[in-house]
Amino acid sequence: MTNRFQSKHIGMLAAISGLIGASVYLLMINVTLAHIEAVSGHIPFDMRPFGYGPTEAATLLKALGVEGRNYYLSHQLPLDILYPAMLALTLIATLCLFAERMPNEKLVRFGIVFSVGSALFDYIENLGILAMIWHWPDVSAPLVYATSTATIAKSALTTIAVLLVLLVGVIWMRMPKADLRL
After folding, report:
1. Residue boundaries of the structural domains of the chain
2. Most buried among 87, 130, 156, 182, using CB within 10 Å?
3. Which tens digits make up the pLDDT trace of 100-153?
4. Greatest Cα-to-Cα distance within the chain, rounded to the nearest angstrom
5. What pTM does this model have?
6. DSSP string spanning 10-41?
7. What does the DSSP assignment read for 64-90?
8. Are 91 and 166 in contact (CB under 8 A)?
């Protein structure tokens, strides 16, 4: 497979996964997470990058009521199963596209590790939210703290991964054309 052919496929993968990921993200932000916040009057777990404690978790879960908790399970979590994979795939494909033309791939490797870590912690967060809803009203403090830690880790790793993609992109764009490998 030639580099040009491979680049075209990696670029297509980045674009398609990016479109799917952005569509799912917009749907979550504008529909499911907005509905959860409207029903409960509180910010959903997914949107708390600095975490939450047992009291905040209980307040949100109680305010959601039965219908709100069912909505979280039936609408938000299914979308949040697709989103982390699409985001990670977009970031990784974009990094791989840049890597084909960069002499030093260390930042690319770090970006891939942070992208995978971001998705992994997003899935751990989702499992924690699922467990908290299933166990309501008997949600243990360790479960809340573990889920909150996953939320914080997801947020930090996602931020770092996106920043690394942007940094690699800037470095790649600033490279003299003669240094580009095709």
Report:
1. 3-179
2. 87
3. 777 778 999 999 999 999 999 999 999 999 999 999 999 999 999 999 999 999
4. 63
5. 0.92
6. HHHHHHHHHHHHHHHHHHIIIIIHHHHHHHHS
7. HHHHHHHHIIIIIHHHHHHHHHHHHHH
8. no
